[in-house]
Amino acid sequence: MKPALIVHGGAWDIPDEAVETCRAGCRRALEAGWAILSRGGSALDAVEAAIVVLEDDPVFDAGTGSHLNLDGRVELDAIVMDGGTLRAGAVAAVQRIRNPIRLARKVLERCEHMMLVGEGAERFAAEQELEGCEPEELVTEAERLAWTRCRGERHAAAHHRGHQQDTVGAVAMDRDGRLIAGTSTGGTCCKLPGRVGDSPLIGCGCYADAQAGGVSCTGWGEAIMKIVMAKTAADLLRRSTNSAETSGDSAMQAAREAVRVLAERGRGTGGLILLDREGRPGYAFSTPRMAYAYVSTDGSFVTSA
Ligand code: ASP
To answer: Does residue 266's CB lie within 6 angstroms of at least one atom of ligand 1?
Structure first.
């Protein structure tokens, strides 16, 4: 198989002044994942590497620099799913993990369960000798300032101007045809402590089935959950790749259709990236912008406008 990779840095109203930073972050993530895939490495390693880059970049709402909850703390969710086995590893509401996607991978590979939350997830991380961090280390000055403004008045996008970015994700296919999808987020600003959105939920913020495709979503979590958006998109991919009229842009059509269902039935906005089972990329969003990057079929890197 020809390897394939697509990443995103969230769908939202990314302001003009932040567009270039988001684009550069997505490109770095793409480079990190592609360096692995192009030398024959695994899709799982590529998804993890790409998402770690995005989690470490404070401009995105994942890992360091995530939005703060009502208590002023970072609370992280992540998932990674294997399209071959349909097994996922997911963690939610963790506060002491710098790279939750690494912990999600440990759950995928070394845990009998598929999802761990809060303190139990952090205990599992320690057992797996995954390096933890102090909660304050995940908080950036920009987010603290935005949170202070949101608390003083009320939550408003304007308080996040310039760094109003979002959830991150990646979908990869390696030379052996293994398909992996992953998503990582700090969730929404001023969320209630303990709130978990779509991102770490199998079928909502992420899904992978090697017989259909792999998907990572972003946007308004409560709406995405209503329509189980990642699984909805995977089902659309399954249908289109099974039908006789499969065309080059069936992946794009499936992505657009999922976003249409999100608007119509979920009454929400958001976006998604995907690879179909042949590794063809697709993306769509209903927000003003979405940050994304992918390797096109001719091998060149394409980044969002
Ligand atoms: N979907 C994420 C959540 O609701 C946030 C986002 O993608 O903007 O937690």
So the answer is: no
